[in-house]
Each structure stands twice: as C-alpha cells, then as structure tokens.
Amino acid sequence: MEDYHVAKFAQIQDNELGLFAIYDGHVGDRVPAYLQKHLFTNILREEEFWEDPTLSISKAYESTDQEILSHSSDLGRGGSTAVTAILINGRRLWIANVGDSRAVLSRKGQAVQMTTDHEPNTERGSIETRGGFVSNLPGDVPRVNGKLAVSRAFGDKSLKSHLRSDPDVQNTDVDVDTEILILASDGIWKVMTNQEAVDIARRTTRDPQKAAKQLTAEALKRDSKDDISCVVVKFR
Question: Is the pTM of this model over 0.85?
Fold first, then answer.
C-alpha cells in the first residue's frame, strides 16, 4: 500500500481549519509518508497564508518537493501525487493537486470536479520542452519517458527534469448547496465517474467514513487494479 491520507481539524489563530489530503505514492511509500507528515505544516508556515492562500499553497508545494529531492538518499527514488483541501472556518475551501488524485464536490447532488488530472498526453508540450518524451505503447497508458503515468508529481528525482511539481489551486465558497467533498486516488476514478462517486457518497451521507468505505468497496467490486484511497467530507 503506497497511499496515505490526512483528515483532521486544527485550531490556529482563532480559526478552525479542516485539513484533508490523499497522497498516492509510486515506487515505494517514503515520499507519500513524508508528505503526510510535512506538507500541511509547510503550507501553514508560509507567512502570507492568511492573506494569500493560493500563493502560499503553491510555494509550499514547490519547497516541499525540493526538500524531498534533497533527501532522496533517505526517501528513495519514488514519488507521489497529492490532492489537498483546506477548509477555513467552514466557509471557504482551498483545493490543490499535482498528479491524478482528484477532488470532487457535490452541489445539490451534482458532481463538480475541482481539480485537473495531470496526465502526460495533456501536458506533452511541457514535458517535451523539458527534454522528455511521452510514450504511447499499445495496451498501456501514456507515460513520461516510458515510466510515469502522471506529468506532475512530488519526488521522482530521476525524472524531475521532465516533470512539474507546481499545483493547480482552486477555491470556492461552502454554501448551503455544498454537501460533500470527495478526495480520492485514481484507483477510484479509473472505474467510476464523478457523478457515480457522488451518488454513492450521498446514499451514506450521514457517516462520511462509511461513505468512503462504500466508495472503496465499489471500486474493488469493479476490479480496480490501483491502490485505492478515499476521504469524504460532509458539510451538511
């Protein structure tokens, strides 16, 4: 198992923060374990966090990746995707990601995808500009230099010159129509649509942990071949 997650609340400067994340590792679990321990800490240490969360999240993603690369002798040659969500005082949500772990909101029962999957084919230009290539072998997914199936990731020192670690960052109000947030690794999204995931989660909306277990069970039932991690956050 190379997936790690975060789901906790913290009180900081009279503000309540909900901190939620999925880290989907590859080639070992040391990088996602490092992210689980350090990424949110690094984000909240940024001086401008309360004035400019978007900038602070982006800076912390990049600096954390540099930390991982500088400790590659201990952390190994692997890497990790990330999707993070920070809920500020129950009213505003900041979502960021690198890779193909995804965040989906339910608004009035309708699925709204809040992240972009960073896949080699969609970011081919960036990869080739950096001197890499995208392989498209029959029966396989597109891969950076024939190896990695995502175009952005933490770690992956041997491929880093061809990869990005800057996140896409989105923010949104949590209003009366906002019901559920689902964060999940690609083991979920390869076997079900965003709307199917929302429908399953809404059926067990009183218990978000149970909803996450239901989503995982359904992915296994659909013969998902990847590691499966899921966090469900209930707003109403």
Answer: yes
**Residue ranges of domains in the chain:** 3-234
Question: What are 187-235's pLDDT values in tens digits?
Answer: 999 999 999 999 999 998 688 999 999 999 999 999 998 889 999 999 9
CATH number 3.60.40.10 is the correct assignment for the domain at 3-234 = yes
Cα diameter, the chain: 55
